[in-house]
Write the structure tokens for this entry.
Amino acid sequence: MDLKITTLAERPELQGPMWAMADTWAAFMEHDPVAWSLMGRIAADLPDYVLVATDERGRVVARAFSVPFALGADGRGELPDGGWDQVMLWAFSDLRRGAKPDTVSAIEVVVVPDLQGTGLSGRMLAAMRDNARARGFTEVVAPVRPNAKHLEPAADIEEYARRTRDDGLPHDPWLRVHVRAGGVIEKVAPVSMTVTGTLARWREWTGLPFDTDGLVEVPGALVPVHCAASRGYAVYVEPNVWVRHAL
């Protein structure tokens, strides 16, 4: 496929089509409060770290978001257990304070449904690495959302993250793309994203009854949702897997 991959800063007119492109996120995934607050700000405030891919017809077929942040700042140093949410909070705190970033974190790679499985996600990851390198960074980190973990929601995330095929590559397809690109799995981020809601909201998002206390397996969720039916709410705490890419 003849692709053109550019930053949003270079082609700001693609912002509307980029947001309008189809995706396959489960409905509940759109209600993480950190992402709800900050994803739009990445495009507005950090367009040099947003990549957009268009095909030969000019259709937006993929996007990739990343953020620069100061991993080496006081009180940090290690990739956070808070994963996806925490690194976005750090990035915008650093931007507000004028702190000099030393690392780029991947945030999201999305490919239109009809082109998933064609290798486009790997091309976007490569472009993200190239973009960070061109801006003087020596490392990209990624709080990876393993894209087949939802098929095994009861599986232990530590075991799943380290599970390999006979060829030594990760069992999970998206982790496999990262490792093939040179990434190294470092650790699990156990509280990478949190979605809370009333029972009514969870019923709306999933079509499931949410009427009994306990764990509920939800399509698209990497781990079960904790339902407190007697208290009127449910909570989803998603683990991700930190991967380091030296550039």
